[in-house]
Protein backbone atom coordinates (compact mmCIF):
# COMPACT_ATOMS: atom_id res chain seq x y z
CA UNK A 1 0.00 0.00 0.00
CA UNK A 2 1.24 3.47 -0.86
CA UNK A 3 2.42 5.78 1.88
CA UNK A 4 0.45 9.02 1.73
CA UNK A 5 2.27 12.32 1.72
CA UNK A 6 1.17 15.03 4.14
CA UNK A 7 -0.48 16.89 1.27
CA UNK A 8 -2.49 13.80 0.35
CA UNK A 9 -3.50 13.29 3.97
CA UNK A 10 -4.81 16.87 4.04
CA UNK A 11 -7.18 16.02 1.21
CA UNK A 12 -8.31 12.75 2.75
CA UNK A 13 -9.06 14.72 5.93
CA UNK A 14 -11.08 17.16 3.82
CA UNK A 15 -13.25 14.32 2.53
CA UNK A 16 -13.62 12.97 6.08
CA UNK A 17 -14.56 16.45 7.30
CA UNK A 18 -17.34 16.68 4.72
CA UNK A 19 -18.55 13.14 5.45
CA UNK A 20 -18.67 13.66 9.21
CA UNK A 21 -20.37 17.07 9.35
CA UNK A 22 -24.06 17.26 10.22
CA UNK A 23 -26.08 18.91 7.49
CA UNK A 24 -23.71 17.96 4.68
CA UNK A 25 -25.14 15.61 2.06
CA UNK A 26 -22.47 13.95 -0.08
CA UNK A 27 -23.85 13.47 -3.58
CA UNK A 28 -20.65 12.01 -4.99
CA UNK A 29 -17.18 11.21 -3.69
CA UNK A 30 -14.04 9.78 -5.23
CA UNK A 31 -10.95 8.63 -3.37
CA UNK A 32 -8.75 7.52 -6.22
CA UNK A 33 -5.79 5.19 -6.04
CA UNK A 34 -2.29 6.59 -5.68
CA UNK A 35 -0.40 6.47 -8.96
CA UNK A 36 2.91 5.30 -7.58
CA UNK A 37 4.64 5.15 -10.97
CA UNK A 38 4.79 8.95 -11.07
CA UNK A 39 6.87 8.94 -7.90
CA UNK A 40 6.71 11.67 -5.30
CA UNK A 41 6.96 15.33 -6.22
CA UNK A 42 10.66 15.63 -7.20
CA UNK A 43 10.52 12.53 -9.42
CA UNK A 44 7.19 13.56 -10.95
CA UNK A 45 8.42 17.05 -11.75
CA UNK A 46 11.50 15.57 -13.42
CA UNK A 47 9.26 13.29 -15.51
CA UNK A 48 7.06 16.23 -16.51
CA UNK A 49 10.13 18.11 -17.72
CA UNK A 50 11.39 15.05 -19.60
CA UNK A 51 8.05 14.22 -21.26
CA UNK A 52 6.53 17.65 -21.75
CA UNK A 53 9.50 20.01 -21.71
CA UNK A 54 7.88 21.95 -18.85
CA UNK A 55 9.91 22.73 -15.76
CA UNK A 56 7.57 23.72 -12.95
CA UNK A 57 8.88 25.96 -10.18
CA UNK A 58 10.15 23.88 -7.22
CA UNK A 59 7.87 25.69 -4.75
CA UNK A 60 4.85 24.03 -6.39
CA UNK A 61 6.09 20.60 -5.33
CA UNK A 62 4.61 20.97 -1.85
CA UNK A 63 1.10 20.83 -3.36
CA UNK A 64 1.65 17.73 -5.48
CA UNK A 65 -1.04 15.04 -5.31
CA UNK A 66 -0.76 11.53 -6.77
CA UNK A 67 -4.44 10.50 -6.62
CA UNK A 68 -5.73 9.36 -10.00
CA UNK A 69 -8.78 11.39 -9.00
CA UNK A 70 -10.10 12.97 -5.83
CA UNK A 71 -13.56 14.53 -5.85
CA UNK A 72 -16.54 15.58 -3.82
CA UNK A 73 -19.94 16.96 -4.76
CA UNK A 74 -21.94 18.09 -1.73
CA UNK A 75 -24.80 20.20 -0.45
CA UNK A 76 -25.03 21.82 2.97
CA UNK A 77 -28.24 22.78 4.75
CA UNK A 78 -27.75 25.00 7.81
CA UNK A 79 -30.71 26.78 9.34
CA UNK A 80 -32.49 28.38 6.42
CA UNK A 81 -29.40 28.41 4.20
CA UNK A 82 -28.39 25.96 1.49
CA UNK A 83 -24.97 25.80 -0.12
CA UNK A 84 -23.47 23.65 -2.87
CA UNK A 85 -19.94 22.76 -3.81
CA UNK A 86 -17.83 20.47 -5.93
CA UNK A 87 -14.22 19.82 -6.84
CA UNK A 88 -12.70 17.13 -9.01
CA UNK A 89 -8.91 17.19 -9.10
CA UNK A 90 -6.47 15.46 -11.40
CA UNK A 91 -2.75 15.33 -10.66
CA UNK A 92 -0.32 17.46 -12.64
CA UNK A 93 0.95 14.83 -15.11
CA UNK A 94 -2.66 14.05 -16.08
CA UNK A 95 -3.59 17.75 -16.22
CA UNK A 96 -0.97 18.35 -18.89
CA UNK A 97 -2.99 16.10 -21.21
CA UNK A 98 -6.33 17.78 -20.32
CA UNK A 99 -6.31 20.69 -22.73
CA UNK A 100 -8.76 23.55 -23.19
CA UNK A 101 -9.76 22.38 -26.67
CA UNK A 102 -13.37 21.77 -25.62
CA UNK A 103 -13.74 25.51 -24.89
CA UNK A 104 -12.78 26.53 -28.42
CA UNK A 105 -15.40 27.36 -31.06
CA UNK A 106 -15.40 29.18 -34.37
CA UNK A 107 -16.67 32.51 -33.02
CA UNK A 108 -13.83 33.01 -30.54
CA UNK A 109 -11.42 35.90 -31.14
CA UNK A 110 -7.94 34.75 -32.06
CA UNK A 111 -6.40 35.91 -28.78
CA UNK A 112 -8.97 34.02 -26.69
CA UNK A 113 -8.52 30.92 -28.82
CA UNK A 114 -4.77 31.12 -28.25
CA UNK A 115 -5.34 31.48 -24.50
CA UNK A 116 -7.60 28.43 -24.27
CA UNK A 117 -5.14 26.37 -26.29
CA UNK A 118 -2.64 26.91 -23.47
CA UNK A 119 -5.05 25.72 -20.74
CA UNK A 120 -4.27 22.52 -18.86
CA UNK A 121 -7.26 21.58 -16.72
CA UNK A 122 -6.66 20.35 -13.16
CA UNK A 123 -10.00 21.00 -11.40
CA UNK A 124 -13.55 20.65 -12.74
CA UNK A 125 -17.16 20.62 -11.55
CA UNK A 126 -18.61 18.05 -13.97
CA UNK A 127 -21.80 17.23 -12.10
CA UNK A 128 -23.40 20.60 -11.38
CA UNK A 129 -20.87 23.25 -12.29
CA UNK A 130 -22.25 24.09 -15.74
CA UNK A 131 -18.86 23.65 -17.38
CA UNK A 132 -16.74 25.50 -14.84
CA UNK A 133 -13.10 24.54 -14.49
CA UNK A 134 -9.70 25.67 -13.29
CA UNK A 135 -6.66 25.42 -15.52
CA UNK A 136 -2.97 26.17 -15.58
CA UNK A 137 -1.85 28.31 -18.49
CA UNK A 138 1.18 26.57 -19.93
CA UNK A 139 2.75 28.49 -22.85
CA UNK A 140 3.50 26.57 -26.01
CA UNK A 141 7.14 27.58 -25.65
CA UNK A 142 8.56 27.34 -22.15
CA UNK A 143 12.00 28.56 -21.18
CA UNK A 144 13.28 28.11 -17.68
CA UNK A 145 11.26 27.32 -14.58
CA UNK A 146 7.62 28.49 -14.52
CA UNK A 147 4.81 28.92 -12.03
CA UNK A 148 1.87 28.92 -14.47
CA UNK A 149 -0.99 31.37 -14.28
CA UNK A 150 -4.17 29.86 -12.86
CA UNK A 151 -7.41 30.62 -14.74
CA UNK A 152 -11.01 29.97 -13.79
CA UNK A 153 -13.47 29.41 -16.63
CA UNK A 154 -17.21 29.88 -16.03
CA UNK A 155 -19.69 29.17 -18.84
CA UNK A 156 -18.32 31.55 -21.47
CA UNK A 157 -15.42 33.50 -20.05
CA UNK A 158 -12.16 33.08 -18.17
CA UNK A 159 -10.78 34.99 -15.20
CA UNK A 160 -7.11 35.15 -14.23
CA UNK A 161 -6.66 34.29 -10.55
CA UNK A 162 -4.26 36.03 -8.17
CA UNK A 163 -3.07 32.68 -6.85
CA UNK A 164 -0.66 29.95 -7.89
CA UNK A 165 -1.30 26.21 -8.14
CA UNK A 166 -0.19 25.44 -4.58
CA UNK A 167 -2.21 28.33 -3.16
CA UNK A 168 -5.26 27.18 -5.12
CA UNK A 169 -5.08 23.75 -3.48
CA UNK A 170 -4.62 25.37 -0.06
CA UNK A 171 -7.71 27.56 -0.60
CA UNK A 172 -9.74 24.57 -1.76
CA UNK A 173 -9.18 22.91 1.61
CA UNK A 174 -10.90 25.89 3.27
CA UNK A 175 -13.65 26.62 0.75
CA UNK A 176 -14.45 22.92 0.18
CA UNK A 177 -15.18 23.73 -3.45
CA UNK A 178 -18.11 26.06 -2.76
CA UNK A 179 -19.32 27.14 -6.19
CA UNK A 180 -17.67 30.38 -7.30
CA UNK A 181 -15.05 30.52 -4.54
CA UNK A 182 -12.40 31.19 -7.20
CA UNK A 183 -13.83 34.69 -7.76
CA UNK A 184 -12.40 35.65 -4.37
CA UNK A 185 -9.02 35.55 -6.10
CA UNK A 186 -10.05 37.31 -9.33
CA UNK A 187 -10.18 40.99 -10.26
CA UNK A 188 -13.99 41.17 -10.38
CA UNK A 189 -16.83 43.20 -8.94
CA UNK A 190 -19.24 40.69 -7.43
CA UNK A 191 -21.92 43.35 -7.50
CA UNK A 192 -21.96 43.15 -11.30
CA UNK A 193 -24.97 41.70 -13.04
CA UNK A 194 -24.57 37.96 -13.40
CA UNK A 195 -22.44 37.47 -10.30
CA UNK A 196 -25.03 38.30 -7.66
CA UNK A 197 -25.79 34.65 -6.93
CA UNK A 198 -22.07 33.95 -6.55
CA UNK A 199 -21.79 36.79 -4.01
CA UNK A 200 -24.78 35.39 -2.11
CA UNK A 201 -23.21 31.93 -1.95
CA UNK A 202 -19.91 33.32 -0.73
CA UNK A 203 -21.67 35.34 1.98
CA UNK A 204 -23.47 32.16 3.05
CA UNK A 205 -20.22 30.20 3.05
CA UNK A 206 -18.56 32.73 5.34
CA UNK A 207 -21.62 32.89 7.58
CA UNK A 208 -21.96 29.15 8.16
CA UNK A 209 -18.50 27.62 7.68
CA UNK A 210 -16.99 28.99 10.91
CA UNK A 211 -19.68 27.06 12.82
CA UNK A 212 -19.65 23.82 10.85
CA UNK A 213 -15.92 23.76 10.01
CA UNK A 214 -14.36 25.66 12.92
CA UNK A 215 -10.79 24.45 12.39
CA UNK A 216 -9.99 26.99 9.67
CA UNK A 217 -9.10 30.69 9.43
CA UNK A 218 -11.59 32.59 7.28
CA UNK A 219 -10.22 36.11 7.80
CA UNK A 220 -8.47 36.33 4.42
CA UNK A 221 -11.57 35.10 2.58
CA UNK A 222 -13.73 37.65 4.40
CA UNK A 223 -11.39 40.46 3.42
CA UNK A 224 -11.38 39.29 -0.19
CA UNK A 225 -15.17 39.16 -0.32
CA UNK A 226 -15.54 42.65 1.14
CA UNK A 227 -13.05 44.02 -1.39
CA UNK A 228 -15.16 42.65 -4.25
CA UNK A 229 -18.60 43.85 -3.18
Structure commentary:
The protein is α+β, with helices and mostly antiparallel strands. The chain has one domain. Helices cover 33% and strands 23% of the residues. It contains 7 helices and 9 strands. The protein has helices at residues 6-20, 41-52, 92-95, 110-117, 165-175, 196-212, 219-227; strands at 24-31, 55-56, 70-78, 81-89, 119-124, 133-137, 145-146, 149-154, 157-161. The radius of gyration is 18 Å and the shape is globular. The N and C termini lie far apart (48 Å). It comes from Streptomyces koelreuteriae.
In short:
The protein is α+β, with helices and mostly antiparallel strands and 229 residues long. It has helices at 6-20, 41-52, 92-95, 110-117, 165-175, 196-212, 219-227; strands at residues 24-31, 55-56, 70-78, 81-89, 119-124, 133-137, 145-146, 149-154, 157-161.
Structural descriptors:
229 residues, alpha+beta, 4-stranded antiparallel sheet, 3-stranded antiparallel sheet, 7 helices, 9 strands, 33% helix, globular, SMI1/KNR4 family protein
Assign a percent range to the helix content: 25-40%
The description of the largest β-sheet is: 4 strands, antiparallel
> What is the beta-strand fraction?
15-25%
**Number of separate domains:** 1
Mean pLDDT: 93
Unreliable residue stretches: none
β-strand number: 9
Structural class: alpha+beta
Shape: globular
**Distance from first to last alpha carbon:** 48 Å
Strand order within the widest sheet?
5-6-8-9
Radius of gyration computed on alpha carbons: 18 Å
Instruction: Provide the succession of SSEs.
Output: HEHEEEHHEEEEEHHH
Helical element count?
7
Protein name: SMI1/KNR4 family protein
Organism: Streptomyces koelreuteriae
